[in-house]
Predict the 3D structure of the following.
Amino acid sequence: MTDEPRIGVYVCHCGLNIAATVDCEKVAKEAARIPNVVVSKDYRYMCADPGQEMIRQDIKDFKLDRVVVASCSPRMHEPTFRKCVESAGLNPYLYEMANIRELCSWCHAHYKAEATDKSIDLVKMAVAKAKYLSPLNVIKVPVTRAALVIGGGVAGIHAALDLADMGFKVYLVERTPSIGGKMAQLDKTFPTLDCSICILGPKMVDVARHPNIELLSYAEVKKVEGYIGNFKVTVTKKPRYVIEKDCNGCGECSNACPVEVPNEFDENLGFRKAIYVPFPQAVPMKFTIDMDACIECYNCIEACKEQGRDAINFDQKEEERELDIGTIVVACGYDLFDASQVKAYGFGIYDNVFTALELERMTNASGPTQGQVIRFSDRQTPRSAAIITCVGSRDEKTNIWCSGFCCMYTLKNALLLREHYPDMKIHVLFMDLRAPFKGYEEFYRRAREEGITFLRGRPTEIYEDPKTKNLLISMENLSTGEPMDLETDIVVLSPAAVPTAGSEELARLLTVSRDASGFFMEAHPKLKPIDSATDGIFFCGAAQGPKDIPYSVSQGSAAASRAGRIMARGEWEIEPIVAFVDAEKCRNTKVKCGICTTKCPYGAIATEEKKAAIVNTAKCHGCGTCAADCPSNAITQRNFSDAQILAQIDAALEEKPEEKIIGFLCNWCSYGAADLAGTSRFEYPPNMRIVRVMCSGRVDRDFVFEAFRKGAAMVMVSGCRFGDCHYISGNYNAEKRITPLLTMLPRFGISAERLRLEWFSAAEAGFYVNLVKDMVETMKKIGSEKIKVENENARPFLERLLAQSGG
Amino acid sequence: MSYAFFPGCMIQLRLPYMEVAARKALDLLGIELIEMPQASCCGDPISFQSLNKESWLAMATRNLCLAEEMRKDVLTLCSGCYETLKTANVMLKQDKQLKEKVNGVLSNVGREFKGTVEVRNFFEVLQRIGPEKIGLHVTRPLKELRVAVHYGCHLTRPGDVLAFDDPMRPVIFDDFVELIGAESVPYLRKMLCCGAGLRLVEPDEALKLVEMKLKYVEDSKADCMAVLCPYCMIQYDLGQKMIKRQKEGAFQIPVFYYPELLCFAMGVKPEALGLRFHRTSVEPLLKKMI
Amino acid sequence: MSNEDVPKELEELIKEKVLFCYQCGACVGSCPTSRVISEYNPRKIMEKLILGHWEEVLSGKLIWLCTLCHTCYEVCPQGVGISHIIVVLRNLAAQRRSAPAEFLLSAKQLASTGWTSPITSAVQRYRKELGLPEVKNPETGELIRILESTKLKQLLEG
């Protein structure tokens, strides 16, 4: 800390986003009164060119060595202003941000006076932290010029091809025996009615042929370690029991195999052998043995030998590959909702109720019924069909979201039926018809041109006529306002798109978040739809949310571009917010300690016998857990040091502390949720004063003690839900560390309910808002008088504890 | 096993033959039924609930308190009672505020709901006896009997409270029909309500709902219907007598209360049950069954 | 629109449940009453509430036609729970003296004897024939005190 820092404070109006609620001029004036603030201004748009220029000019004119901007969330513009400050010759880490928009003006629209006071507090906190900032240099790390694409559907294929064309090595990992994904199963695609596998097939072959792409099929990602530019990924190749380099895909083994089992590719409507390729255009064209079906008759081995090859090996084992990866693209697609969950529609019970994908396998000329649509009850051609949309979508009982492309594939299926059966009566039963993009509304018109009837109404239930096995659909015809029964030969259900099986585990492996619906969560829904919140990992295709083929292809290329951007430079800059050990304070030099080493999830801090702990800055991800758990307070975190955090607490509680709640929110989840609450304009009382930490693991007990010592009414410590911690185990450590305080504090006289430990994700803005409201209510119930008395009684104990830990 | 016995007013006062069948069947299966002398109507899910839900809950809860004093789970014979008592039981256990409110009303009569017993329907009791044990008693399986099962509405709905079987496509009643050797026959609109709830205000229209269901049952060639609720029994058993069809002539579909079928399957003589009280004669069918 | 203020209970219910109705008609498809009485349509009742026509709903006879089969409650994709709302609407209508006479009569019978049907000598005879114990009237004093506490007694008498 400089003895006499020269701090510039800039309060942004953000047009009216902040200024409509917060009196920015007043905030700037109040900030000017803080010691060491030599200039304090307010301005309409700090992030715009003139605003940034003003900062640059002031740095020169006023010889500023610290800059504080009070505006939006650091998750939004911290990099912007760091660059601005750097361009004026100041170290970019001598910059701090106060979030008076997402955390203040946007959520306290009806508390104008309080919002202004809160903004003043937030500025004071930022200034207090700024005093303790030190110049830091970004850590430059090399970037491995190899990408990992997880998932070989249409999005993954395009991401892989674009990256490979850019000149990067690409590992494409696909867990099924062939790439192609859902698109390979389709018959035709909307709105052009192109044959699906015909347009996808050549791309699949391109992948197989590309010199830069190594296709690891029938393989899964098992472990991911490291960080952007420097991932170490372990991939498990499952045993095919077929030697890939020796198999030429002739198929004689399959012909000789006596076992037939349902074929997943055909939605179990047809059969395949125990030794199989999933479909004729499979890439790679290598056979696989399904050991659950195989009876080990070894006919296949004989058949292969007759062809002069020996490609089958029943002793093949699982193989592990360790890959050095620079960037990761997640393209694992979606699953279709299991329509049998909607019992009232009878899928799985009634013979003649199908899903859309089953229908496409039937209309497909190379499908199990050679292009014929057949009723399962009597093998007859249906003369009528009813297609029901929104099965498992837009429904509180199953999935609340709209799956986006089902209306379009419903239209396509209706047209496929019409193409095959010119005289069939085809009804589409829908609530709303969503046909938003290029050529889509025209496609809807085309369907009506072809005599397909559209009935608006959500069917309530379906019964099967016991004799004819026809289906009787009960619904209201919304156009006439009358209940009706529709009798039909077959029913086709359009199921929702749901997150693919294994998403939860993959998200954990990659330490990325999933949103409330279970799809992978992008860093920013508008401006960063491809980036995950974890540097170097990108999403594309339906993995990020249900979408159609053109959108998936676009995202595949976008992910390649985002990943390529990092790998092109060969090196990347990492934020230097790493752990730092004061060797003189480290206990390990005197007694055997090593607590930091046990807590670190990355193996980034080593404690050799009798030596002070050493941080490997390249491996350190900056969670701060070691700093919080160090018993001799020897470790701190750059840019999130003890001094900086304690200064924020003190500044926040300078005035009327008994009305304030100090919240320690982790950057990735809880702070994200607080931001989202502001973005969504949810209103809640203005009592929170948030101290941002990168991880809940950073929260030292001393921080809680200090907050109460300074008179805070309540303290909130929050982080990600268990299993979702961005730093893997930070929240577990925080829970272990802070939970005992719930029994300790009451012994000093502080009611247990004044400390809250909560875990929620960045998608849970509502949870956060209700939590704050609940805490404010509790605060009011206890009453400021009692709070003051409890704090007074506890003070001597807290001061003793703080003195002991050297904090 | 023993239960606090709650037959309800409809069965006790209008269809006592249903009570006979239930008592006989449970007696043969070794279940002890303990009377609840101070029990009243469950609370009437139609008129009381519609006029004042709080009164409905309070009356139901009073009955539950009686069972709590007896330390016995309650066995209901009527789906209306099942819905009423179970709703009160589940809601008061879940919602502290509601429990306080209802206990406040009950304090006027010196009673307090504690939430210590469960409410069971006839099938839940059978489930707890176990299909194997019941199978041992089925000495006269009702082979060749084709039964159209009518679940009614309040055995399974509202599903989140009753949590007994799937609310839209239940299977347990069908399973118990098959357990006694009969065939549960599929028919259209199986879950259609009997219309009892409409009877108070629009009795003619309620009868149209009865006719609708009976037509489908007739089409399915079932020999009889099976119900578990006295409201449904009145609708279909008495109701079909009231339907005068011009062309096809009167319906002749006997309606049984499931325990009656169970009794037959366990060898109980028809004379021991009050079959003569059925409004649609069961005589022609009895020969086929016995 | 209405002249007076919407009752608080109804206002809360509308905010928490009814506003989410997106008028899909799933509640109507299998509604037994709507099959036999063409004016009855639960979706339209929800729409009336959304548009603020609650007085018309409370004073009308339509809400008394629901059979309380709860099919709408199970199938509604937005969790509106129509049949449960109908019960609240009926309660409010009853307070405003809009309940049909048939419901009041049925409730009065129950309130005075503790049973929905009278205990006739015929039924006591049948029960004896069938070997069943006699039925007695329950302790109606408790019942009356309960109904006084919930104000239903006053409603039935008024």
